[in-house]
Amino acid sequence: MNDDMQAPETSVSEQPSAFKTFVKTPKGKLTIGIVVVVVVLGLLAGQVYARPVTDPLVRAMASLLPFPALSVDGRTVTINEFLTEYDALGSYFEDAGQEAPPSDQLEIAIADTLVNKIAIQKLADQYGVELDEERVEQYYQDVLSAQESEGAFEESLSQTFGWTVEEFKARIVESIVLALQMTDTVLADTQTQQPRRDLIDTATARVKAGEDFATVSKDVHAGFEGIEGDLGYVKASALPESWGSQVNALEEGQTTQIIELPEGYVIFKLEEKIVAGEDTQLHLLSITVPKVSLEEVVDEYLTTVEVKRYVGEE
Predict the structure, then answer these.
(1) Distances (CA, A) of 167 to 92, 175, 180
(2) Cα 110 from Cα 54, distance rounded (Å)
(3) Which of 82, 88, 102, 162 is the most exposed place for a label (fewest CB within 10 A)?
(4) Is there a contact between 107 and 309 (Cβ–Cβ < 8 Å)?
(5) How far apart are CA 311 and CA 314, in angstroms?
(6) CA dihedral for 53, 57, 63, 65, sign (positive or negative)
(7) For all residues of the chain together, what is the average pLDDT?
(8) CB 73 within 8 A of CB 105
(9) Element (H, E) at 174
(10) Which helix (H) or strand (E) element contains residue 267?
């Protein structure tokens, strides 16, 4: 009786399991191979991100596989690309005879630069700004004008950074020119600047309604850093042409209309006028509202998109 009951168990144990059968098939072998590769890559990735970005293993792996260093709104910079920037900056400090910052600080600085560079490129697309190639060439020529010769500059680029002239233009000049173009665009964009225009309009209305100029100035400047409402005594002849004529035309106690400057809006009040020798001294008060800067636009943009840092984290 017992023998009969044990026979089926022996028969079942002799049958191969479904897993073993699957493993022996081509599909099973492929699946196992993929799993092994994923596990190995996972272990390597753990090592890559656990070590300093300049570690030999990290460099070796980054040259073989596109491990991400950071990404901004879907645009990824690989560790290999990151290391190119890192090595170039390190070479600069070495060539200049200066001690480079600690590696962690250097990584953060490079990551910040790359994040901002990508953000400006993304914003340029949004604003419809295309890189001005003529301006790029002009900027490069301006750089050359401060060099001994073009040949010496090319040699310096090669020795210091390992770059050709075209790489220098692509990595440095194009980024600078695009940033300059975007600065001009942002400062001139009425929609972007409307909140600041509204602020100076409100300040003007308060002054015209009889409020104390200095009080309004203090209220407005409280929203910004480093702006003084009392400019003290300045020489009339030293005033810029862009707004000097309007100020010189004032009588004591009068204020100008809103003056739009390249980087802001301002109202001046002439507190006192003193004729001193060959020049006239003007005691000026001001209400100044800076325009929204490219830096502010970039910071705002970065709060609205996904930014991931795998290296260079603060």
Answers:
(1) 15, 12, 19
(2) 13
(3) 102
(4) no
(5) 9
(6) negative
(7) 85
(8) no
(9) helix 174-188
(10) strand 264-276
Residue 54 main-chain phi, psi, to 5 deg: -90, 0
- Count how many residues are written for the chain: 314
Instruction: Return the DSSP state at 255.
Output: B
Query: What are the pLDDT digits (tens) for 203-245?
Result: 999 999 999 999 999 999 999 999 999 999 999 999 998 899 9
Q: How far apart are CA 102 and CA 277, in angstroms?
A: 56
Query: Greatest CA separation found in the chain?
Result: 131
Query: Regarding beta strands 307-309 and 68-72, do their DSSP bridges make them parallel or antiparallel, or are they unpaired?
Result: antiparallel
Tens-place pLDDT, residues 237-278: 999 988 999 999 999 999 999 999 999 999 999 999 998 777
Q: 10, exposed or middle or buried, with CB in 10 Å at 0-12, 13-18, 19+?
A: exposed
* Cβ atoms < 10 Å from Cβ of 213: 20
State both tokens at 99: 């001690």
Q: Give 35's pLDDT tier (boundaries 50, 70, 90).
A: very low
Q: Supply 108's token pair.
A: 């953060």
Residue 248, both tokens: 């010189």
SS3 assignment, position 155: helix
**Lookup: tokens for 151:** 């040949």
Q: Which two tokens stand for residue 269?
A: 């009040």
Paired with 260 in beta bridges are 265
| Paired tokens of 155 | 């040699």
